[in-house]
Specification:
Elements: H1 8-11, E1 17-24, H2 32-38, H3 50-58, E2 68-71, E3 91-93, H4 112-132, H5 137-160, H6 167-173, H7 181-195, E4 200-203, H8 219-243, E5 252-254, E6 259-260, E7 272-273, E8 277-282, E9 290-292, E10 294-295, E11 302-304, E12 307-308, H9 310-319, H10 336-339
Length: about 350
């Protein structure tokens, strides 16, 4: 299995990984981030994202934490739930035990009894409004968010507290190294969230409106530095999940919005390229040590078992026991492409 020497730690996990080397999409600009999550071009009518569908189909396993969490920058205003309602949007968490969630702490110090009474009053007032407007999805989501926010004030800082992890585990992820520490912290928190019943966790790596990986010039310098930030933490997550017996029940997806051109842009860069790129998956019934699909000899077009981005969605939903077509909402007709096709060749 060919893996770049910029990813030596991920390479050591190859036996657990299935590569899909024949992905394609239709957006050649950074709206493709939205398209990878939802399956729709940014200018199309919006669809719920994969995380929202998982949340809608499986509901919550925890009373104290969100079902759907995002960590890292989101470069577009993504409303994950869309017509499912805002209750299915991702909750954005910062990996900071002192300030993990925007607006989570009261503006003024409150005792727990006083705060509980305040939440109870707000909940009662909201439910009075809900009885008058029973179809108001935003109001129903607000009621749920207030209830969850109160419980999260204790659960989220405890989850973010990595001091309870062993020194060996911290080294495994790279928390003891300056280059890897920021991303390693996110991935270790992701494992702790998964252990506590959070169903869908997405982590976005990069900075700026276009993302740090957008190397239109100086690609070698750019990508070698960025791969060093993520390589050890990702391998650490796979190894840690496997050691704990969690990998068999947890799907890890490493993906991108699109590829880069096989030819150069300028002297030392690469342009956006939606016609052929790779993703990989591991765990959760995925067949490790597998390569599926290929591009042409130039790396320009996906030609062998080409897969549109929603085929990844269909595969993950299938492994979670969900059928995309049975998740349809009355009055909302989805395109065949929105559902995708399960990539059965990479299933164990």
């Amino acid at each position: 299995m060919e893996i770049s020497d910029w990813f030596p730690h991920i390479g050591s996990c190859a036996d657990d990984i299935a590569f899909v080397r024949s992905m394609w999409t239709t957006d050649n600009n950074h709206g493709a981030q939205v398209q990878f999550h939802s399956g729709r071009h940014m200018l199309d009518p919006h669809e719920p994202t994969l995380g929202a569908w998982v949340t809608y189909g499986l509901a919550s396993m925890t009373d104290n934490l969100p079902t759907f969490v995002n960590m890292g920058p989101r470069f577009f205003d993504v409303r994950d739930g869309h017509y499912l309602g805002p209750a299915y949007d991702a909750v954005n968490l910062r990996v900071d035990p002192k300030n993990p969630l925007a607006f989570a702490a009261p503006e003024v110090p409150l005792g727990s009894a006083e705060q509980a009474a305040e939440f109870a009053l707000v909940n009662r007032l909201n439910r009075l409004s809900a009885s008058q407007y029973p179809g108001d999805q935003a109001l129903l989501a607000r009621i749920q968010s207030y209830q969850l926010a109160f419980k999260m004030q204790a659960a989220v800082p405890e989850t973010m507290n990595l001091e309870t992890e062993s020194a060996e585990t911290k080294r495994l992820y790279g928390l003891d190294e300056k280059v890897t520490e920021p991303f390693a912290r996110q991935l270790l928190v992701a494992r702790r969230l998964a252990e506590r019943g959070v169903r869908f966790i997405q982590i976005e790596h990069g900075d700026g409106a276009a993302g740090a990986w957008d190397a239109h010039s100086k690609l070698k310098d750019n990508h070698s530095k960025l791969s060093a930030q993520v390589d050890k933490p990702i391998a650490g997550l796979l190894t840690d999940l496997k050691q704990r017996g969690l990998l068999e029940d947890t799907i890890v997806l490493f993906a991108t919005e699109f590829g880069r051109t096989p030819g150069s842009q300028g002297a030392d860069g690469r342009d956006h390229h939606p016609y052929g790129f790779s993703v990989w998956m591991a765990g959760g019934g995925i067949k490790g040590g597998t390569i599926h699909g290929a591009t042409d000899e130039l790396g320009f077009h996906a030609v062998e078992h080409p897969h549109y981005v929603t085929d990844v969605h269909a595969t993950i939903l299938h492994q979670l026991g969900l059928d995309s077509r049975r998740l349809e909402v009355p009055g909302r007709k989805r395109l065949e492409r929105d559902h995708g096709t399960v990539i059965r060749e990479i299933l164990a």
